[in-house]
Amino acid sequence: VQLLESGGGLAQPGGSLRLSCAASGFTFSTYAVSWVRQTPGKGLDWVSTISAAGTTTSYADSVKGRFTISRDNSKNTLSLQMNSLRVEDTAVYYCVKDRGPYGGSSDYWGRGTLVTVSS
Amino acid sequence: DTQMTQSPSTLSASVGDRVTITCRASQSISSWLAWYQQKPGKAPKLLIYDASSLQSGVPSRFSGSGSGTEFTLTISSLQPDDFATYYCQQYNSYRTFGQGTKVEIK
Lengths: 119, 106
Hints:
The complex is a heterodimer. By secondary structure, chain A is mainly beta. Chain A has no helices and 11 strands. In chain A, strands 2, 4, 5, 6, 9, 10 and 11 form a 7-stranded mixed sheet that branches. Chain A has a 4-stranded antiparallel sheet with strand order 1-3-8-7, with no helix packed on it. Chain A is globular and about 40 Å long. Chain A starts with a strand and ends with a strand. Chain B has strands spanning 4-7, 10-13, 19-25, 33-38, 45-49, 53-54, 62-67, 70-75, 85-90, 96-97, 101-105. In chain B, strands 2, 4, 5, 6, 9, 10 and 11 form a 7-stranded mixed sheet that branches. In chain B, strands 1-3-8-7 form a 4-stranded antiparallel sheet, with no helix packed on it.
């Protein structure tokens, strides 16, 4: 199983970024996938989850209305569109595979991509 | 929202020690709890899911127990590779992580 994130970088407050995750080594369309972030030197925060078929999405209150999760099962890719970015969105963003079709614990994690929001 | 509280925040121990970390949920989460290990600069690694099921490939010195609101992660005999930070996570309602427990060398 491999999960490879891309798209991180520097953005200004109020700006946008789009993260992508390329998945391989498992039947992508069978499992939910999620984004989890970690502020440098601090703990873990769940961001969003999308079900295996892409029909159900959920978001942390801190990103609801600003971030949009999506997946393309034909291309084995997961995306996170981040709009109206805030300084407090600065973190390493991990793409994670969940153990079930609707979520659960996360058995595989990518290496992460750093998002920095600063003026 | 379900809050997760881990204790202690830091734990100093020696190789061979039995180590126990506690995680408390602000409301019942049945057995929908996982434990992860994270080393500096690396992604977290799943150790335990559904409160007491050992993830494939994880050494048997790791074990989990509990249900409802109180859970424990036990390392039966601490090994040099086990010095790391450990997080609990509930997935009963959305997901919430505990604040982490750093296991340090005594």
